[in-house]
Amino acid sequence: MREQTRTGRPAAPRAGRPAAPRTGRPAAERPRVSVRERLASHERPGSLRKGPPITVRCPCGERRELAYGEVWRCACGRRWDTNQIDAEQYGRLRRLQLRFRILPVCIGVATSLAALFFLLSHNTFSLFVLLPAVLVGWGMVLRPIHRRRYAAALGKLPRWELRSE
Questions:
Q1: Lower CB count within 10 Å: N or C terminus of the chain?
Q2: pTM score of the predicted model
Q3: In the structure, how many helices (H) and strands (E) does the chain have?
Q4: CA 90 – CA 53 distance, rounded (Å)
């Protein structure tokens, strides 16, 4: 029997001792879990620098998110090239995305600085007022307004219809 930690989980195998075989479902049937959970799991790594992904839907039903300038060949044989999108239009989308990221970042930085100030001035009680107030203010007032404005700005941008080659 494998050793257990205080939390009841199996202990990691020690050097010199072989790992106990896993029981249960085979690896092919277990759900794939990523090693690293991202807070913004809806975004691809590097999407801030490279721009948002472009979703391409093939008539055969397959769907893929591509970076700007990427070429994809579908299983049905169609070839999709995102270079068909005008570079200036895609640049406007990137600038819009960056512009609407400024407010949440500024609120986070300002809240962090205020929390640090209260900690350094030994006024820790104010943290119990500041943090809930900021979270409620952002979540219930500012964030819905911010999302509506972002959606409206995105709606004004043109939609692209790529042609397969």
A1: N
A2: 0.62
A3: 5, 4
A4: 10
